[in-house]
Amino acid sequence: MDRVAAWLHEKNPGLDGPIDADEDLVEARLIDSMDFLEFVDLLEEISGTSIDLQEATIDDFRTLARVRERFLSAAG
Amino acid sequence: MAAAPGPALAGVGATREVLALPGLSEDLLAPWEARRLAAIRLPARRDDVLASRLLLRLCVSRLTGRPPGDTELAQRCPDCGKLGHGRPYLPGHPGLGVSLSHADGVVAAAAGPGPTGVDVEPAVRRPASARTLRRLLTEAELRAAGPGDAGRLRAWVRFEALLKAGGQAPGVRVWSDARTGAVAAVATGAPAVVFSLRPPRAPRGPEEPRTSGDPPPHSP
Fold first, then answer.
1. What pLDDT, in 10s, does the model give residues B133-173?
2. Nearest-5° Cα angle at B144, B138 to B150
3. Closest partner residue to B42 among A14, A34, A53, by Cβ?
C-alpha cells in the first residue's frame, strides 16, 4: 500500500499527514475523474491483474482499506 | 415549477474570480453541501468545489431570473439512489438540468432544459495516455478530438460532459477559454450559450464588463 499512498500524495501536493485507511478518497477529492484512470493502471501494475471497470463500482475505490481488500489482497 | 425556456448556459471561470464575486458566498450552500466541503483536506481543492457550486447558482440565476440564493440544489446517485452525492438536480425546476465541474483553479457550471453535463480542465493538464483513456473512450472519440495531449484532453472533457448528462444530450460543444486557460465541454439538449467570468471591479455590478454574446446578469 506504500506505493498507493505515495501516488496519492504525489497527486495531492500539500496534503499533510497520512491518509487514513478509511478516509473517503472521493469525498476528500483526493482522486479526480482523470486521475482515477491512472489509479486503476497503478493498481493493475501492483497486483499484476487486470481490473474490469464494468464489474467494479466507485465504492471499490473509495477507501484504501477497500482498495486493499478488493484489488491488492493477493499482492501483499 | 416548469423549466425556464431558452438556451442552456455554460460558464467558465477561475476559482479565485468566482469566490471574489459579490453576492456569491459560502452562505448560499445548503448544510449538506457545507458538510461535504468540510471533508476536503486541501484548501485549494475545497475552494474549487465551493466555486463550482456558486457558479452553478449564478448560471441558474441567469436562466431563471431568480437570485442565486433561491437555488435549492440536490444530488442523487444514479447507482445507489442515495441523496447527497451523484448527479445534481434542482428540486424546484424538474425540467432544468444542471452540472458542475472543477479542476485545479478553474471551474465550470451549466444549466439548461433537459439533461445537461459540463466538464473543465486546465489546458496545461497532461491527460492520461491513449492506452489508459481507451478504457472508457472509443478509438473514434480519441481520433475525432485530434492528436497529442491537447486532443486527448478535449476528448476527455467531451466524454465527461456527455457522461454527466447521462449520455442523453444530443449536442456536445467543446471550447477553449483562453482567459482562464481552460478547456471545457458542455452537453445539452438545447443550444448552449457560453460565457467566461471576468474579474470583478468594485464597486460596480457583480460581474463586468460583459462580452458580446453574454446573457444579461441577474439584477438583484
1. 998 999 999 999 999 999 999 999 999 999 999 987 778 99
2. 100
3. A14
Residue B70 has which C-alpha cell? 433561491
DSSP code string of B51-71:
HHHHHHHHHHHHHH-S-GGG-
Q: Do A37 and B132 touch (CB under 8 A)?
A: yes
Which residues of chain B fall below pLDDT 50?
1-4, 203-220
Give all domains of chain A, ordered by start, each with its CATH number: 2-72 (1.10.1200.10)
Q: Is A63 exposed, middle or buried (0-12, 13-18, 19+ CB in 10 A)?
A: buried
The grid coordinates of residue B92 equal: 424546484
CATH of domain B8-192: 3.90.470.20
B44 CB neighbours in chain A (<8 A) are 14
The residues, ordered by sequence, that sit 6+ positions from B67 with a Cβ below 8 Å of its Cβ are B61, B218, B220
Burial class of B202 by CB neighbour count within 10 A (0 to 12, 13 to 18, 19+): exposed
Q: Is the pLDDT of residue A76 over 80?
A: no
SS3 label, residue B58 = helix
3-state helix, strand, coil in chain A (%, to 5): 50, 0, 50
Does the distance separating the beta carbons of A14 and B132 come in below 8 Å?
A: no
Residue B209, preceding peptide bond in cis (omega within 30° of 0): yes
Indicate the residue type of A69: E
ipTM given for this complex: 0.84
State which residue of chain A sits closest to B134, comparing Cα positions.
A37
